[in-house]
Amino acid sequence: MNRIIEAKAGGPPSEGKPEVAWLAVDEESAGQRLDNFLIRHLKGVPKTHVYRIIRSGEVRVNKGRASADTRVAAGDTVRLPPVRQARRAPDAVDLPAPAREFPVLFEDDHLIAIDKPAGVAVHGGSGVSFGVIEQLRCARPQARLLELVHRLDRDTSGVLLVAKKRSALKALQDQFRDRETGKTYLALVLGEWPARLKVIDTPLRKYLLPDGERRVRLAAAGDPEGMRAITLAKVRQRLPQGTLLEVTIKTGRTHQIRVHLAAQGHPIAGDDKYGDFERNKAWQKQGLRRMFLHAWRLQFTHPASGERVELLAPLPPDLLCCLPA
Q: 117, 31, 137, 159: which is closest to 291 by C-alpha?
């Protein structure tokens, strides 16, 4: 369990006037994303507020700023700003996420690989009450542990890993961090992608719109907030109005593929954030109702056996409509 190691008011933020508090990360919580760590601790605090205090820099990990996707480690100290937690009514009842199983690509005692459908967030937060992981936990109440190994955007379908053991979670997350996994997506982009353009190595930085929505753009040279991002593109199929690409990412930046491809003048078909909105309408007439981005292949080393594993998720029907029969 997490514990408050110091609080000026002498107790959790929910007792009396909220004050600054510090939390220690124990072994059981190690490897969790910072947002999930806080959401589990701050019962009664809206998830939107949790994300707001993270974005503002009020939450600190070991005295440094951290993002929502930062992984906490055992022994870390997390600073919380004054946060008022709603008092629970005596008859209040937590409404669980609806139980849901997802198509399984692979499963053993250590992990599950599912084929995530588009339109489903991987976890709750930022205006989403629940996601894949909450639904899966409700569908499998007997499971001792189910934790996301990595993320996919809500509008992206395809291979998603879930760990069933803490040891598997750490081993797989280490592989993702050290770039030892192979992640290849299928993306339909507008226009004719130049065959010579195979490597995009351009830094990215996050920013917020006035309404607080998160976006990403190319970073200027020397930008201290720019994060290196490397994307490899290979032409798979040329179509009359676009190009189907195999896109392999060497770094896992937020919206990396979408921004990198759009910056080359070839946005992903159906992308409502970085795409060509007028041309998206034409794709909609052909039956494309969402962004054409699919996590098609994932390669990793099995955390227990040490064998190299390759998983493939076939293109779903809602994307096949745009390709020749």
A: 117
How far is residue 312's CA from residue 298's CA, in Å, rounded to a whole number? 7
Q: What DSSP string describes 179-196?
A: T-SEEEEEEEEES---TT
Q: Where in the chain are the domains?
A: 3-80, 104-177, 182-320
Pull the structure tokens for residue 13.
Answer: 């933020």
CATH for the 104-177 domain, from 3.40.50.2300, 3.10.450.50, 3.40.50.300, 3.30.2350.10: 3.30.2350.10
Classify 3-80 by CATH class: alpha beta
pLDDT in tens, 107-146: 999 999 999 999 998 887 656 678 899 999 999 999 999 9
153 catalytically annotated? yes
Q: Quick one: CA dihedral 177, 116, 146, 67, positive or negative?
A: positive
Question: In CATH, which superfamily holds the domain spanning 182-320?
Answer: Pseudouridine synthase (3.30.2350.10)
Catalytic hit among 153, 155, 271, 276: 153
In which element (H, E) is residue 210 found?
A: none
CB 16 within 8 A of CB 78: no
Cα R_g (the chain), whole angstroms: 21
